[in-house]
Amino acid sequence: MINVTKSYLPNIEKYKSYIDKIYESNWLTNSGPLVQELEIRLSKYLGVKNIILVSNGTVALDIAYKALDLKDEVITTPFSFVATTSSIVNANLNPVFADINEKTFNINPKNIEKLINKSTNAIVPVHVFGNACEVEEIENISKKHNIKVIYDAAHAFDVKYKDKSLLSYGDISTLSFHATKLFHTIEGGAIITNDDSLVEKIRYLINFGIKNQTHIPYIGTNAKMNEFEAAMGLCLLDDIEDIKSARKNIVNFYEDSLKNLLQLQEHNIYSTKNYSYFPVVFDDEDMLLKVQKALNEKDIFPRRYFYPSLDSLSYIKYNQECKISRDLSKRILCLPLFVDLAFKDQELIINTVKKSLN
Ligand SMILES: *Cc1c(COP(=O)(O)O)cnc(C)c1O
Predict the structure, then answer these.
(1) Any residues with CB less than 8 A from the CB of 182 and at least 6 apart, and which?
(2) How much of the chain is in helix, strand and coil states, percent to nearest 5?
(3) Would you say the CB of residue 81 lies under 6 angstroms from ligand 1?
């Protein structure tokens, strides 16, 4: 069986050597030595100023909204994983959807400004499939209207924009290190910010709002990463260049084979690729279903990602239909992409797609 993704596991002896260290230190969680080491190594590797590791990418979003004291309305994209919207609703904020660009799949800055009113507090864009948003346009809008920007950068591990980390845009960027992501810590995530004044508050918020034994200034939560997760991250970081080059080869072969037959994502020309996903877009949903069925019959399971469009969720209060996102979400499929996807299996996937298109 071939799934859309397969978690990367590092050398087991290396992972065991970290587990031995945890047994020696007897320090399992609460900002232990491995979490601290991973924060230092990631901030260097990614080229970001402040990084705070947390237990997952969803809670990273929750904490970001709390750290910035958001209220009322937040403008976001309808084309993302459900956590982008559900985290906004869970924070008692109202998501307002700005439709996407049909070529880049990212929020269209042209649709953002007309939705801004007195209640607008922030913009929450997503770098969809690791493709950089139009960050400079979004920055201009946020400055003009004095509103915050939180990037859900769950897909954008190690993407550079004009030679600087894409994660350094916005007030806060969040990452997911879930087992299915390009870089993972089993479960995990991170909060990235250039604003030094937010770092202390974020560190208290992830630990129940506790500052010290006598002072609890914030309503916090439990969002701590543990040492076993950090150990996995340290092992993966050693292998990250190999992981990326293997994925790059797979993506290039898909691209060469399918670019004349299917719509592919248009990539931001100012940014690097991280080869995190390989989405293809069909002419209509029937064609997608036909291809999906043909692949499933060969035990190959691509994923309808993202579907449904988030503006159509049952708990979204008022009708704000985003036509482009709804249309795209019905026609888009992510093909299997992981480090040890065998060449002959990839050939089978490509040939099956090609055959069912005719
Ligand atoms: C994976 C993902 C999340 C959630 O991250 P978790 O670590 O699974 O909680 C949020 N947003 C996007 C776009 C994602 O792909």
Answers:
(1) 130, 155, 157, 158, 243, 244, 247, 274, 275, 276
(2) 45, 15, 40
(3) yes
Distance 306 CA to ligand 1 centre (A): 12
Averaged pLDDT score across all residues of the chain: 97
Q: Which atom of ligand 1 is nearest to the CA of 181?
A: 1
- pLDDT digits 0-9 by tens, 172-209: 999 999 999 999 999 999 999 999 999 999 999 999 99
Q: Is 84 in the pocket of ligand 1 (CB under 6 A)?
A: yes
pTM: 0.97
The predicted pLDDT at position 144 comes to 98
pLDDT tens digits for 88-143?
A: 999 999 999 999 999 999 999 999 999 999 999 999 999 999 999 999 999 999 99
Contact 178, 172 (CB under 8 A): no
Extract the tokens encoding 143: 């400055």
Which pair of tokens denotes residue 169?
Answer: 């845009």
Tokens of 319: 């009708």
Q: Is the CB of 247 under 6 A from ligand 1?
A: no
Whole-Å CA distances, 1 to 4, 8, 288, 298: 10, 16, 20, 8
Beta bridge partners of 281: 263, 332
113 alpha carbon – ligand 1 mean position (Å): 26
Here the tokens at position 317 are 């209060």
Q: What is the pLDDT of residues 282-308, one digit of tens each?
A: 999 999 999 999 999 999 999 999 999
| In the block, residue with structure tokens 């290190």 | 177
Q: Which amino acid is located at 325 in the chain?
A: S
Q: Could you tell me the distance, in angstroms and rounded to a whole number, from the CA of residue 128 to the centre of ligand 1?
A: 11
* 3-class DSSP state of 170: coil
